[in-house]
Design brief:
Layout lengths: L6 H13 L20 E3 L3 E5 L5 E5 L16 E4 L2 E6 L5 E5 L4 E4 L24 E4 L2 E6 L4 E5 L4 E6 L5 H7 L10 E8 L2 E7 L2 E6 L4 E4 L12 E4 L2 E4 L3 E9 L4 E11 L6 E5 L6 E4 L5 E3 L4 E5 L8 E6 L2 E5 L4 E6 L3 E7 L5 E7 L37 H9 L19 H15 L16 H9 L16 H11 L24 H9 L19 H12 L10
Antiparallel strand pairs: 1-2, 2-3, 3-4, 5-6, 6-7, 7-8, 9-10, 10-11, 11-12, 13-14, 14-15, 15-16, 17-18, 18-19, 19-20, 21-22, 22-23, 23-24, 25-26, 26-27, 27-28
Helix pairs in contact: 3-8, 4-5, 4-6, 6-7
C-alpha cells in the first residue's frame, strides 16, 4: 500500500490544524460518543504507540518535519500522558486524542518555514511537542490532503484544500483567492449524527447513528460535485474498501455477529459494487490503513492489486487487539499489551519482531498476568489413589488441583488415563482465561442449561471459539485443547522458551498450527517423540493437567529444567 508523497498537502493540513487551535469548545448535544481507542500509528518511517498507563511515545524518522533526533524504539520519546488514540497520515501529519477527548497536533516542524510561523503557539524548537487544538473529539481520520474529525456530539468536521475533503463547502467557507491560493479550509462541518468516519482519496465515508453509510468526494477526477450520498445500510465501521456490517444475533449463542464486505465506487458511472468477504466475518474494527481485526483477535491485511474487488484479505497474525498498517512496517498490539512490528520483505513475507510489553491492548491489561493463579485447594499426599509420586504427571496433577483448574473424577481418583470431553476442555480453557485476565466470572448455570453452557458462552464471547460444535460429549483432541488454551493465554503467558520445535504431522496448513506451535515453543505442550504431535488423538486427563499446570506455572514448563 503506497501513500503518495504530497509535502505541500501536509503543510496545508498541519497549518490548518494549528490555526484552528482553541477555536472550538466542547459542544453540547444529545449524543455523547466515546473516545475511540487507537493505541498505535505507523507512518512512513515514524511510529507511535500508547503504553498501558496512557503515555504516548514516538520513535523513528518522519519523512517531513520532525525534530531531527529520530530515536530508536529503545530511546522512544514520551510525547504526552493520558492518551487514548493516535493517528498519522504517513507523511508528517500526526494527531493524538486524550481520554477526555482533547485533540492534539504533533510534528509542527512540517510548517516551520511558512510565513505564518508567528501564529503558532507551539515551541518552534520542539516541533514534536503536542499542540492542543480542540476539545470534545471522538475520533480522527487523516489522509495526505485532508483530515476528518468526529466530535463526541456527532458532528463531522473536515479540513483540507482544493478538491480534497469537502470542496463544495470550501467554496463558501474558504473561497480561492490571492490570500488563499490553494483554497484551504480550516475545519468546516459536513454533517451531524455521525459515529464513525474515514478520510478516503478526495473525500470520505461516514456512518450515522442509524448505521447508514454515507460517502462524498468519491469522484476520481476532483470530487467537486460529489456531495454526501447514502451508500449502504447496517454498517458499523468502514474504510476505503471494507465494510463491517451488522450480521444480526446468532440464535444459537445469543451473540451479536458482524459481516465483512468489500466495496468499490465507480467514479465515472456512480455505480457502487459490494461483495461479501466471509473471511472478515466477525470483524471487530477496521483501521484507516485497511487493517482488519476480528473479534477473536485475527489480523487481516489486503493481499492483491489494491484496486476494485481484486485480491482478498488474508490473516497475517492472531491474538491481536489493535493494528495500524504502515507503508512498509506495521504496528500491532497483541493480547496482553505486547507490541509487535510486521515488516514487509522483498519476497512478500512479513518479518515479525516483538518490541516490548506494557502497551494498551484493549483487554483488561492492568489485571492480567500469571500472578493471578493462586492456590485455592489443599493437595494432600495420596490425594488420588491412581496418582503415584513417581508418575511423570504427579506434579502437574497436584498443581492443576491446587489452582482450581481440574478436580478428580471422584474424591479419591483422578483417572489420569481417561480422556476429557469437548465440554471439559472448553471449561478448563475458559477457567484459565478468566483467571489469567483477572475477570472473576461467576459461570452461573441458568435454569434449564447444561452444566457447561456458561463456559461455552464465555469462550465464544471472548473469541476462543468461532463456531458452535455439534457434540460436546465426545473426546476432545489434542489440537482442540491447544486451540482453546492458546486463545486463553495469548501475550506474555506464551512467550517461547525455544524456537527449535518441529512436528512432522503439524504443518502450516493445519488449522491449529499457530496454537500448537505457540504452546509447544512456550514449553506448555509437548509431542509424543520422533517429531510426532498426534493432533487428532484424544486428550488424556494427565495430559490436560500437564498443559494447564505448565501454562499457569512457568517453572513446570518443558525446557525450564524439566
Amino acid at each position: 500500500m503506497r501513500i503518495k508523497r504530497y509535502a505541500a498537502a501536509i503543510l496545508a493540513l498541519v497549518l490548518g490544524a494549528l490555526l484552528f487551535q482553541g477555536a472550538l469548545a466542547a459542544p453540547a448535544g444529545e449524543l455523547k460518543l466515546p473516545v475511540r481507542e487507537q493505541p498505535v500509528a505507523a507512518g512512513f518511517g515514524d511510529f507511535y504507540a500508547i503504553r498501558a498507563d496512557g503515555t504516548l511515545i514516538a520513535w523513528g524518522a518522519p519523512e517531513f518535519g520532525g525534530d531531527g533526533k529520530d530515536p530508536s524504539f529503545e530511546q522512544a520519546r514520551e510525547l504526552m500522558p493520558n492518551a487514548a488514540a493516535v493517528y498519522t497520515s504517513g507523511r508528517g501529519a500526526t494527531f493524538a486524542v486524550d481520554k477526555e477527548g482533547g485533540l492534539y497536533g504533533i510534528n509542527t516542524g512540517t510548517i516551520r518555514f511558512t510565513p505564518v510561523l508567528q501564529r503558532i503557539t507551539a515551541d518552534p524548537d520542539d516541533p514534536m511537542k503536542p499542540v492542543k487544538m480542540m476539545d470534545g473529539v471522538s475520533m480522527v481520520s487523516v489522509s495526505g490532503y485532508h483530515t476528518l474529525i468526529v466530535r463526541r456530539n456527532g458532528e463531522l468536521w473536515v479540513q483540507g484544500e482544493g478538491s480534497h475533503g469537502a470542496p463544495w463547502l470550501y467554496e463558501e467557507n474558504a473561497p480561492k483567492g490571492k490570500d488563499n491560493p490553494y483554497q484551504r479550509a480550516y475545519y468546516v462541518k459536513v454533517m451531524d449524527n455521525v459515529i464513525w468516519a474515514e478520510a478516503t482519496g478526495r473525500g470520505g465515508v461516514a456512518v450515522t447513528v442509524n448505521h447508514e453509510l454515507w460517502g462524498w468526494g468519491l469522484d476520481a477526477v476532483d470530487g467537486r460535485d460529489n456531495k454526501p450520498q447514502k451508500l449502504a445500510d447496517n454498517v458499523l465501521e468502514a474504510s476505503w474498501n471494507v465494510l463491517i456490517r451488522d450480521g444480526g444475533m446468532d440464535e444459537a449463542t445469543g451473540i451479536e455477529t458482524t459481516q465483512g464486505w468489500r466495496w468499490t465506487y465507480d467514479s465515472q458511472t456512480g455505480k457502487i459494487e459490494m461483495k461479501r468477504a466471509p473471511e472478515l466475518d466477525g470483524a471487530a474494527r477496521v483501521s484507516s490503513s485497511g487493517a482488519v481485526v476480528t473479534r477473536g483477535g485475527g489480523l487481516y491485511f489486503f493481499d492483491g492489486s489494491g484496486s476494485g474487488l481484486d485480491g482478498a484479505y488474508k490473516q497475517v497474525m492472531d491474538m491481536v487487539s489493535y493494528a495500524d498498517r504502515g507503508e512498509r512496517t506495521s504496528l500491532v498490539v497483541r493480547f496482553g499489551g505486547v507490541l509487535w512490528s510486521l515488516t514487509q520483505q522483498e519476497d512478500g513475507s512479513l518479518k515479525e519482531e516483538r518490541l516490548g510489553a506494557g502497551f494498551y491492548g484493549g483487554e483488561p491489561g492492568d489485571k492480567q498476568g500469571l500472578d493471578n493463579f493462586k492456590t485455592v485447594n489443599r493437595y494432600r499426599a495420596g490425594q488420588f489413589a491412581d496418582v503415584k509420586a513417581g508418575d511423570w504427571f504427579a506434579d502437574n496433577v497436584k498443581s492443576a488441583y491446587e489452582l482450581g483448574l481440574m478436580k478428580g473424577n471422584s474424591p479419591t481418583t483422578f483417572a489420569p488415563n481417561s480422556t476429557i470431553t469437548v465440554a471439559e476442555a472448553v471449561t478448563v480453557a475458559a477457567r484459565v482465561r478468566d483467571i489469567y485476565w483477572g475477570e472473576g466470572t461467576g459461570f452461573t448455570v441458568k435454569a434449564g442449561e447444561l452444566w457447561y453452557q456458561p463456559y461455552v458462552d464465555y469462550a465464544i464471547a471472548n473469541g476462543m471459539m468461532n463456531e458452535v460444535l455439534a457434540d460436546f460429549d465426545r473426546p476432545a483432541t489434542r489440537a482442540e485443547l491447544a486451540r482453546w488454551l492458546h486463545a486463553a493465554l495469548a501475550g506474555e503467558a506464551t512467550q517461547p522458551e525455544t524456537q527449535d520445535v518441529r512436528f512432522t504431522d503439524v504443518t502450516e496448513a493445519h488449522r491449529d498450527y499457530a496454537g500448537i506451535m505457540s504452546l509447544a515453543r512456550a514449553g506448555i505442550m509437548g509431542g509424543k517423540g520422533d517429531g510426532i504431535f498426534d493432533p487428532e488423538a484424544p486428550v488424556l486427563r494427565s495430559e490436560a493437567a500437564a498443559m494447564l499446570s505448565r501454562a499457569a506455572q512457568p517453572a513446570l514448563r518443558l525446557g525450564a529444567g524439566n
